[in-house]
Amino acid sequence: MHNVLLLDTFSFGLIRTEIVKYLKKVKSHNRVFDLFITIQMEVWNVKGKLLKGVLSFGIGLGVLYGGSSVQADTSTDQNNTLKVMTHNVYMLSTNLYPNWGQSQRADLIGAADYIKNQDVVILNEVFDNSASDRLLGNLKKEYPNQTAVLGRSNGNEWDKTLGSYSSSTPEDGGVAIVSKWPIVEKIQYVFAKGCGPDNLSNKGFVYTKIKKNDRFVHVIGTHLQAEDSMCGKTSPASVRTNQLKEIQDFIKNKNIPNDEYVLFGGDMNVNKINAENNSDSEYASMFKTLHASIPSYTGHTATWDATTNSIAKYNFPDSPAEYLDYIIASKDHANPSFIENKVLQPKSPQWTVTSWLKKYTYDDYSDHYPVAATISMK
């Protein structure tokens, strides 16, 4: 569009003001678009009285005050960015742990701002049946596409059940994935082996193939073996390594096109703190085993921290902070141009439980903090 207008100075001023207001508005909303506008004003005096201007402008958007071209560019930018969150929500079975406000927190988390506006959310420790069903129901409006909870059953809610699923195992795997976008494939996989109490659950991983607009993204949510003194002579770290190998073998056998993105997320129970510069650490080994790239880290320095989290402080007041939760990308597939893991520290409205006639009040959604990942796709 190209127009040349002959205007008096007053009219020119009005139009220029409106253009500037519009540009500021667009900028304030961080819209990315291809806009070219030039304004030329030639003012001259005709017989000392009449001022006129020539306004020449070209706009590559079709319509000055927004339109389909602005929206198309915005959606293109959004299509190239994926927002994935993982959160261990500490919903242990109320049969064993009745005083952790699981149902209260299911409502608080479902209404919380921190969990909104993601593309995909991985949930860990959604063990309690009632509370997890409640949480998933509360998230349904924001994330209508959901998996069932890992290891709770092997019915037709899954496209496949793989690994060592057992209907007689006392506890499920406590992992679910919810998505803003359609989930076109859902597979649950139960690990071959755990140790300690983990051996009494169907721990494993959830695989999802998600279609965001015109591209497929593959997201695996997991919760690896916990560090546990009840493992006896079995090293929890060695169990985790074998579980990571099971994940990598699954991905290898899936034959995912190498131009599609593959993400791993969840509570890995692998501590980053004091391990980043140690090539022999379990942290370094995790990335090697998964063939994954190390993300950029921002936000709080730990995902579990008894010095700042009211639930963690009550349970283990003297334990050091740990960084256990991640969203990372496979290097064998499409490589993000940027991936950032940001630890959030949202505070919940206060909630109270009563035990032995004593009231306890907390102001956190879980003992873990959520990790929000921003992935820039090429």
TrEMBL record:
Catalysed reaction, written as an equation: a sphingomyelin + H2O = phosphocholine + an N-acylsphing-4-enine + H(+)
Domain Endonuclease/exonuclease/phosphatase: 85-368
Cofactor(s) the protein needs: Mg(2+)
Subcellular location: Secreted
Domain of life: Bacteria
Enzyme class (EC, first level): hydrolase
Keyword Transmembrane helix: no
Gene Ontology MF terms: sphingomyelin phosphodiesterase activity
One GO term (biological process): killing of cells of another organism
UniProt keyword terms in alphabetical order: Cytolysis, Disulfide bond, Hemolysis, Hydrolase, Secreted, Signal
E.C. number(s) listed in UniProt: 3.1.4.12
GO cellular component: extracellular region
Family named by the database record: Belongs to the neutral sphingomyelinase family.
Biological function: Required, with sphingomyelinase, to effect target cell lysis (hemolysis).
Protein name: Sphingomyelinase C
Organism classification: Bacteria, Bacillati, Bacillota, Bacilli, Bacillales
